[in-house]
Specification:
globular; Uridine Diphospho-n-acetylenolpyruvylglucosamine Reductase, domain 3; Uridine Diphospho-n-acetylenolpyruvylglucosamine Reductase, domain 2; alpha+beta; binds flavin-adenine dinucleotide; 3 domains; flavoprotein; five-stranded antiparallel β-sheet; single chain; FAD-bd_PCMH; Vanillyl-alcohol Oxidase, Chain A, domain 3; seven-stranded antiparallel β-sheet; FAD binding; about 475 residues
Length: about 475
């Protein structure tokens, strides 16, 4: 744990606009301590908010010289930007921006900038990039660890769209990684970036919305279909054709949940089509769902920068939440009634887990593969078991975790352990071993070698050591 004089020395090394919070009872400290989830949330000895790249460098150098462990925090949506009193949190929320370079069709993301901010700024210029369906996710960590977006089948994973990175390494140096400099590091940053340094800025590809969506507003059809939960088998069966129809770029979630405000258990299909004629086509693409007669359905054209807005209630901080994604290689409708039964049992045993959702994320077309090697090992996957557990009471966590494991086992039925793939940007060890996140052996070996070269002491996490 750093001493008061060490923290004072850190404070003295920072620029005047930087902030160091070391009183856990203060309102500011508590506000910056908040995360999307309280799972494993710990209280550090200080939260430091750099305001410049120079501040970031001073903090890493100080941490090295005092032997103080640290974690970086951007959007605070993961379970990993928290540390106990032995260490400090480097909170990047006051060091955050996004700029667009029109002549190069590139966006540069800085520090803790959130996805929504990036989407809005790019929309002003009539361009877009690969961003999550969740506004508050930190844009840099999203890109660094893969990054799945509704545009993956058109533009690839977010990590495939990284052009350059500027980072502070465990050695306390500022380094640029690009096609010309430290190319090996660029390979690692494109899919496993969090484990290699504090990324102060990331330059990513941007695309004219006219090219991607066929209209100047970047609009596409987005909707949802709601059915009572006892119709789960028919809905899942009807979706078999929809999810496997690769003619159109369509995708969404098939979700077992009790959506607010009624909290009636339901099977909810969220659905989108990206096509110049998406509004006309959606009736044909989702005909099987309309034919079933949903109890409610809604949809319309939205611009890409509003893609995450309908999920805003899921972004609320606090409670005990976990988002875990595991790959499914073949769509099997027969798993849904079993998952629905597990959801029912879980919410009966732990009513405070009612906001939980068990779902399958589907894409009708595979993510566009890159033409270069990257650390991202998730290409070729169109379906993910996308499970969000959410309970309000700490005591329910163990029971809820048990149900989560059962749901994952159901969705992995028929897979050999060697075929298990975990989404790189959800959970880490021990729940999600590193070989499942970077599952190709050659890729993993290369990453391990690079980790030994750039961060042998695991300052940025020990996963690859
Ligand atoms: C509700 C929800 C929805 C999501 N939706 C999607 C989605 O649609 N697609 C998708 O791919 N993922 C999605 N995710 C996963 C999300 O992309 C990852 O959890 C991501 O790491 C969160 O980044 P953050 O900045 O918000 O979190 P943080 O907890 O702040 O950071 C995440 C990790 O990155 C490290 N880190 C933070 N900033 C930096 C930096 N500048 N340099 C190096 N390391 C840094 C942190 O130490 C931590 O280990 C979702 C997650 C949630 C909870």
């Amino acid at each position: 744990m750093p001493s008061t004089s060490q923290l004072q020395a850190l404070r003295d090394s920072l620029t005047p606009d930087a902030t160091l919070l070391s009183d856990p009872s203060s309102f500011e400290f508590q506000a910056h301590l908040q995360r999307w989830s309280n799972v494993n949330l710990r209280t550090p000895s200080a939260i430091v908010l750099p305001s410049t790249e120079e501040d970031c460098l001073s903090i890493i150098k100080w941490a090295r010289s005092t032997g103080t462990p640290f974690v970086c925090k951007s959007g605070g949506m993961s379970l990993y930007s928290t540390i106990d009193e032995a260490g400090i949190v480097i909170d990047l929320s006051d060091f955050s921006s996004v700029t667009y370079n029109e002549s190069r069709s590139e966006a540069t993301l800085v520090g803790g900038v959130r996805s929504k901010e990036v989407a809005m700024e790019l929309a002003r210029h009539g361009v877009c990039t690969t961003l999550p369906s969740s506004n508050t996710v930190g844009a840099i960590p999203f890109f660094l660890n893969g990054g799945n977006s509704p545009l993956a089948s058109k533009l690839g994973y977010a990590s495939d769209n990284i052009l350059r990175a500027r980072l502070i390494t465990a050695g306390g140096e500022i380094v640029n990684a690009s096609d010309d400099e430290h190319t090996d590091l660029l390979f690692a940053i494109r899919g496993a970036g969090q484990f290699f340094g504090l990324v102060v800025s990331l330059t990513v590809r941007a695309y004219p919305v006219l090219e991607v969506f066929g209209n100047a507003q970047g609009r596409f059809w987005n909707g949802r279909f709601i059915f009572p939960l006892d119709r789960v088998a028919e809905v899942a069966e009807a979706m078999r054709h929809v999810v496997n129809n690769s003619t159109y770029c369509a995708g969404g979630l098939i979700m077992i949940a009790a959506p607010p405000p009624t909290r009636c258990p339901a099977i909810v299909v969220t659905a989108r089509v990206i096509h110049p004629k998406s509004e006309e086509l959606q009736g044909e693409v989702f005909k099987a769902l309309y034919d079933l007669g949903p109890v409610a359905s809604a949809g319309g054209m939205i611009p890409i920068e509003n893609n995450g807005d309908s999920l805003q209630p899921l972004m609320a901080p606090g409670d005990f939440k976990k988002l875990r994604l595991t790959a499914i290689h073949v769509y099997d409708p027969s798993v849904f009634p079993e998952i629905a039964e597990l959801w029912r049992q879980m919410t009966t045993t732990c009513p405070d887990a009612m906001p939980s959702m068990f779902s399958i994320l589907w894409e009708s077309q595979s993510p566009l593969p890159p033409t270069f090697a990257t650390a991202n090992g998730m290409h070729g996957i169109r379906f993910w078991a996308n499970n969000l557990t959410w309970c309000t009471s700490a005591e329910s966590q163990e029971v809820v975790q048990g149900y989560l494991e059962k749901v994952i086992a159901v969705t992995r039925r028929g897979q050999k352990p060697v075929e298990y793939v975990d989404f790189a940007n959800s959970l880490r060890e021990p729940e999600s071993p590193v070989h499942r996140r970077y599952h190709d052996l050659e890729r993993l070996q290369r990453l391990r070698r690079l980790k030994m070269e750039w961060d042998p002491e695991g300052l940025f996490g020990g996963d690859l050591l």
